[in-house]
Amino acid sequence: MSSLDNVAVARFFEGSVDFITLTHAEQVEVRRELARRDKGYRPVSKKVPRARQAAPVDTPACEGHDPRVFTTVTYIAEALKVCEPCTVKDWCIDQVRPREGFDGVAGGVAWRNGRRVK
């Protein structure tokens, strides 16, 4: 996806879409565009671990859902229902990397303070 080809990214710069409602790929594209616009800014090139480079072949079941559903304790049951049929749960956990302080759902698992809830 080249800069601003995506409609949601263009709408973000118009001010009609919040950053948090964008998909991960759209958020990356917004950051790239911001770096391009800020002439003095040079993004630091960090080598990404190989496991995080590979995108899933299948589409995550949560794509298109409000991200707040997965990070708000009151919506855990709804988030788990969305995650149930997902085929990329391991990839999701690798992307989110729940750590201390994370409360929500990732990879079809409920997390409380970065630990799995049984």
Describe the structure.
This protein is mainly alpha-helical. Helix content is 39%, strand content 8%. Strands 1-2-3 form a three-stranded antiparallel sheet.
Which stretches of 5+ consecutive residues score pLDDT under 50? none
Q: What share of the residues lie within helices?
A: 25-40%
Structural category: mainly alpha
Tell me the number of helical segments per DSSP (H or I, 4 or more residues long): 6
Largest sheet: 3 strands, antiparallel
SSE succession: HHHHHHEEE
Strand order of the largest sheet: 1-2-3
Q: What is the subunit organization of this protein?
A: single chain
Gross geometry: elongated
Count of β-strands:
3
For the terminal residues, how far apart are their CA atoms?
39 Å
Tally of structural domains: 2
- The overall average pLDDT, rounded, is 76
* Beta-strand proportion: 5-15%
How large is the radius of gyration? Answer: 16 Å
